[in-house]
Design a protein that fits this description.
8 helices, 217 residues, 5 strands
Length: 217
C-alpha cells in the first residue's frame, strides 16, 4: 500500500533528524528513501507519453477557442481552458518521456551546475530522445570529452530549451525533496524515463511536478 502524503512528510521530518544525528551530511534516512520510492516509482508505464519537443509543438497548435467566431466566444469561455494555461483542468496533467540528460546544459552554468541533476534534490532534467541522439552522434565524431569546451555544443544546447523538461518530486514544503534523485531512484545519465504529473511553464521551460516515475529497461 502506498503511504499517504502525511506519512511522507512525517518521514521527511524524521529523516532530517536522523540524518543530522547518525547518518552524516548528505546521507538521507533509509526509511525516508524507501517511503519516497514507494510513493513515486511506478510498476507500469503510464500511457500517452510525449517528448518535450512534441509537448511544446502541441501547445502551439490552434484550439477550438482560438478558431471560434466572435459571437461564439461566450460559449467557449465556459469550456476547459486551452492547453498552455495552468487552470485546474485535465490539461494540467502530462506524461513526458525522455533521456536523463544527453546534452550539455542549455542554461547559464553559473546558475545551474551539475546538469542533468540538481545536487541534493529530488529533481532532474529530461531531454528529448531525438535531441540527445543528435548530441551523441556529434560526440561520437569528436570524442565524448570535448563537450564542455565545444562552441558548437554550447551554441546548439542554448537554443534547445524546448527539448528539455525539468522534473521535480515534492517533499514536505512542496519544494523538491532533499534527497539526491540519483540516490533516490538510482537514476543515471542516459536512462530513458517516463514521468507523469502536473505541468507548468517557467520562463518557457516545461516543469513537471511529478507524482509518478517509470524507468524503462
Amino acid at each position: 500500500m502506498r503511504p499517504c502524503h502525511g506519512t511522507i512528510f512525517c518521514l521527511l521530518a524524521l529523516g532530517s533528524l536522523v540524518a543530522g544525528c547518525d547518518s552524516g551530511a548528505g546521507k538521507p534516512d533509509p526509511a525516508l528513501v524507501e517511503a519516497l520510492r514507494d510513493l513515486y516509482l511506478l510498476e507500469v508505464e503510464p500511457a500517452g507519453a510525449v517528448t518535450p519537443v512534441d509537448w511544446h509543438e502541441a501547445q502551439a497548435q490552434p484550439t477550438a477557442e482560438d478558431e471560434a467566431p466572435a459571437e461564439a466566444i461566450d460559449l467557449v469561455e465556459t469550456a476547459a481552458a486551452k492547453p498552455g494555461s495552468n487552470a485546474e483542468t485535465t490539461d494540467s496533467r502530462v506524461v513526458v518521456m525522455g533521456r536523463v540528460g544527453g546534452m550539455p546544459s542549455p542554461f547559464d552554468q553559473s546558475v545551474d551546475q551539475g546538469f542533468p541533476f540538481r545536487e541534493g534534490e529530488a529533481a532532474f532534467f529530461l531531454v528529448d530522445p531525438a535531441t540527445a541522439a543528435e548530441f551523441e552522434s556529434h560526440a561520437a565524431e569528436k570524442g565524448s570529452d570535448h563537450a564542455a569546451d565545444c562552441p558548437f555544443c554550447s551554441r546548439e544546447a542554448a537554443g534547445k530549451t524546448d527539448a528539455v523538461a525539468m522534473v521535480t518530486f515534492a517533499g514536505e514544503s512542496g519544494a523538491p525533496a532533499p534527497v539526491d534523485v540519483r540516490e533516490l531512484f538510482d537514476l543515471k545519465e542516459g536512462d530513458l524515463a517516463v514521468v507523469r504529473g502536473e505541468w507548468s511553464l517557467e520562463g518557457g521551460l516545461l516543469v513537471v511536478a511529478a507524482d509518478g516515475l517509470f524507468i524503462r529497461e
